[in-house]
Amino acid sequence: xxxxxxxxxxxxxxxxxxxxxxxxxxxxxxxxxxxxxxxxxxxxxxxxxxxxxxxxxxxxxxxxxxxxxxxxxxxxxxxxxxxxxxxxxxxxxxxxxxxxxxxxxxxxxxxxxxxxxxxxxxxxxxxxxxxxxxxxxxxxxxxxxxxxxxxxxxxxxxxxxxxxxxxxxxxxxxxxxxxxxxxxxxxxxxxxxxxxxxxxxxxxxxxxxxxxxxxxxxxxxxxxxxxxxxxxxxxxxxxxxxxxxxxxxxxxxxxxxxxxxxxxxxxxxxxxxxxxxxxxxxxxxxxxxxxxxxxxxxxxxxxxxxxxxxxxxxxxxxxxxxxxxxxxxxxxxxxxxxxxxxxxxxxxxxxxxxxxxxxxxxxxxxxxxxxxxxxxxxxxxxxxxxxxxxxxxxxxxxxxxxxxxxxxxxxxxxxxxxxxxxxxxxxxxxxxxxxxxxxxxxxxxxxxxxxxxxxxxxxxxxxxxxx
Length: 467
Ligand code: BG6
Description:
alpha/beta, TIM Barrel, two-stranded parallel ribbon, 16 helices, 12 strands, globular, binds 6-O-phosphono-beta-D-glucopyranose, 6-phospho-beta-glucosidase, beta-glucosidase activity
């Protein structure tokens, strides 16, 4: 019988800036996420007292104050693991502060203690789509090599503080995202040159490798992984040129995994730099530091897409946030993301074949509009189908011999979306009474999928339906 491993880490994933709110509470500094209150596709808005608490993200779902209730609900579903992030600007409000902010550190102590009460393991991302805004304003973001040292200091502080409480870590969320949104990824403006962006990415890769080493020194029994946006591309046709271009498109994001798992820049990337006039300073010390490779690979997976070498065809057809061409064989979500469960099995096999390191699916889910029925229930069968079909493919991959550590679906509780800061794009098993105007009560409510996921976890996947 096909099975999930006995200690499979079932759970959910959220990020500080999308759930916590309390954006200036207890000494927190402004982050890049705070100055983009309309989401990562929005523009930068200067924040001061005159526009405080005006945006959804400023309060988000108020996880900062309501986490005990939310953790209890996750525990009720049987979560083994909860992925969240630490807001760097709660710990170092300006990024370059000499001392950490004790109130920020104390908040995460309480959060991890609450999780421990129920035996829920924290999986903690050091940086999920945010960094202290002052590091961008005053230092130029990751374009400046000094940020590596500030990040190291932040990582050292939290590894030391939480060494007994957190044994699973991730460095940068969707590290390849900087190729699409450099402000969110590396604190650079959208009109930066390719050389500037790749230099900043290089600094981030060095920082990631440096803190992998640090984590091993401070918490020898911890595991630390990277986090990739799994942007799986298929050729639009079987024309050899389309196949080659697709390979190259996949290399654009696999490059990050190659550096973080194999410890060096791959030849295809050096060729890309040479042929596109991209100049990246890589020192001998950087080369050595990069050899500190991760213990496991984590990734997000929401959709796949197609690509072609035919420029006009590409311009005509491109769609969704990653500008992938929609696949004519697949349906799409309300937000135009192509739904492809089989792609998840393909991706798991591809990453396992390439790296032979344990894999952790740390984001997957369906953003959809929910309706509260007159009896108060939320019948989100569409979400159940999406998740069921993806989990069936995870089990197939495990059967293929892929080592999968766990699965944390995205947004187990409704949260503010990253791309456009919407709350009506819901991912949760738990409904949060909030609307785009911010006039909701924030009351929590179990959806139909809540009971479905509880059963999946309880049965260790045996309740999934193969259809
Ligand atoms: C991932 C991010 O890209 O996708 C999350 O790591 C994000 O932060 C998720 O929320 C879904 O995207 P969105 O825009 O629907 O929130």
